[in-house]
């Protein structure tokens, strides 16, 4: 059989094709405590003002500002303390002339008072205190509704739920949170050379490192995943295995077998499943053979068997797909710019993704390769905190150039577009 000719697609277009499939997870409700790292499936509105009442931001005394007008260093003005309240309490007293209520942070400003004097600004006596400066009307008061007003849109559908989001949901009494379900993932490592982690090595064989690595990448996204038995390079049983995985999961990730070798069966498997292949060649190194297809409304990711290519394929293609299914507005990891600390003299028409170490030295961000960096490399992945992006073209890249860096160990999604 002649080798199939494939047309390489630019990385950005490949990602676009994936997210344009617009495969959506269903909406479910989870408890507030379980909602971390889900994506909100509905807009959330403020159920009341924040603050809900005028309150004191300090420990001090609530009084009438008019009574402080003549206060100075030479003329200390005295106030009688008529009540004493803590946070959660409401004074029943009305503050009158030269009167004050002792008040703690978070407590409601009593009726009659229009300013709060901090404890540190007073000299206390018995049931009284003096001050040495005038206070303005409204000084040191947190006003009802100054942060948010009832009915305000405070969180948006598509927003990633972080600790701050949970604080907001708790503030407004949301106990059950509408979110998009996390897709479940089947992980199938293919290759007749593969052994399980616990197996003794044999001639010609290697241990399956992609399976555990992809499972870990899924876990980082809190995705439920099942790792299937190592799949031998055999067409019939491979079709069966992938069909079964597709039935039981929302996403199927295979590693290996997407190239044009004699035992690379993934293209035939996609054909047998009547899958729509979105692309089978990407203008990138490593992982140019990465293939993504859709069958029965589900994504099939055919990642390269080469560990560095497999890792890169997950970061570039699986992540945005998962976040897209989960309805996230921000689907791409944080990209920063860094000064390249190494030379890549050889020009490459394809965009290169290099597992790298980014460091901020207090002044500038620098980046260098994380070690031996062929697509087959595994050790460099462990020493990397980022993937450096070297655009393809007719020139190489030299030390001192500024390059884009995808922060793979950062858990936040900061950008709404790829590079
Ligand atoms: P393939 O994509 O099947 O052509 O495999 C490319 C290279 O990756 C080969 O050298 C394989 O032995 C290696 N490889 C394939 N699958 C795995 C795996 N699960 N873990 C580690 N290396 C693998
Ligand atoms: Mg193989």
TrEMBL record:
The keyword Magnesium applies. Gene3D superfamilies: MoaB/Mog-like domain, MoeA, C-terminal, domain IV, Molybdopterin biosynthesis moea protein, domain 2, Molybdopterin biosynthesis moea protein, domain 3. Its cofactor is Mg(2+). Pathway: Cofactor biosynthesis; molybdopterin biosynthesis. Signal peptide: none annotated. Keywords: Magnesium, Metal-binding, Molybdenum, Molybdenum cofactor biosynthesis, Transferase. Its EC number is 2.10.1.1. InterPro entries: MoaB/Mog-like_dom_sf (IPR036425), MoaB/Mog_dom (IPR001453), MoeA-like (IPR038987), MoeA_C_domain_IV (IPR005111), MoeA_C_domain_IV_sf (IPR036688), MoeA_linker/N (IPR005110), MoeA_linker/N_sf (IPR036135). CDD domains: MoeA. This is Molybdopterin molybdenumtransferase.
